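no rush on this but wanted to send it before i forget. theres a chain ive been looking at and ive put its sequence and its fold in token form underneath. i want to understand how the tokens follow from the sequence so walk me through it. thanks a lot i owe you, the record is right below:
>
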Amino acid sequence: MPAWAHGSERAFVLLMPTGYYLLGGTLAVAATFLLLACMPAGIFQRLACARLPLIALRPPSPVATSVLAFLLLAFLLATGVAGSRDPLANPLPLTIWTLWWVGFTLATAVFGNLWAYVNPWTGPYRLAMRLAGRKQPPLSYPAWLGYWPAIILFLGFAWFELIDLAPDDPWRLAVAVGAYWLCTFMALLLFGEEAWIGRAEPFSVFFRFIGGLSPLLWTPAAASGEKQRLSLGLPGTGLIEGGALPLSGVLFILLTLASVSFDGLSKTFWWLGLNGINPLEFPGRSAVVGINSMGLLLAWGALAVLYTAAVLLGWLLAGRPGKPGALLGTLAFSIMPISLGFHFSHYLTALLVNGQYAYAAASDPFGTGLDVLRLGHFHVTTSFLGTYEGTWAIWNAQTAAIVAGHVLAVVLAHELGRRAIAGGRAVVPSQLPLAAVMVAYTLFGLWLLSTPAAG
């Protein structure tokens, strides 16, 4: 099924010495913590604050770029309704699941929060407000809601992607995406752009956090229309500068990691065998809707308990500095590099294979025989998945992403802990339990890459 297209050739990968990778990657994360614990605080603090100026640029109008994104989305929805029923020939599922959810997320981690310019609501909303002659929304966003709307909506998105029977069916996806755009637009009209985009719209929140991992840092202009300075800094600096998140914000970040982690876990022989399913005779998605729905919630709950326990234990070891909620809300940002590492590793093969299908579909968006891009007899290839060199390169890229994500997470946790806790001596004890969890999660992530999986 196309929904399983992001699975890798696990049987071939298992021929590699994966045990050495698991041990080496886990030791690398542990060594990072030990190095930071021995490093004088002033050295790393200067590194975190270092900037290399690059260029000054005038950013584009978010209204213009957002309107263009809205028009592109409308075109994609039209292809979903009137185009080919084949998910690998229709631009809508290929764009949503491959180019946007995979490729755009990775681009955001490199270049910063691009979603602020290309989300399909900012432009239409601001134009609608101008036409209506209004400057303020009729309702105020309740502070007690926090990030809970984003949590509920992201959980629904994760369920649709991972568990729904046909998430890549073009017509079904067009209805879901169109309904979501309309509901979000109505919410903006009621509560305003700043409130809804800032806390309630899950993808705006997700891409803002992912953009905070970018090594490219933008200094805001003093006035509208002026140039912004672009500089190079430590990846994740954009997250270090933020304040502590409320509990709902912490749970949202943990959900982003739990969803992609469970997606990998749900296809393993271990999980299927645990639920009485023969992975060699997989009966289809309809057979696992119930157990996977429960598994997704359990994975999120288990990760939340594990993170909370680690941070609270660290708070106790550090001598109970300040309020524990502040430490929970601050250290949560260190989870984002892990989430990104899992995202890259889990979806890499989908990007490499389905990205080619997206290229071909762009030449004939409605399946009428057009060849706009003059591709001729273009053929999608998956040959690199069946060669030693190709599989070796993919496996190493996936492993490197998992390890690098955890290493950066340890680094960010150290700096976030230093800023949240007064007194340098208490920082290292406060990080010990969370570092242990990150080391264990590294092992878990590498195990997911190497263990047999269905699909």
The chain has 19 helices and three strands. The CA atoms of residues 233 and 263 lie 32 Å apart.
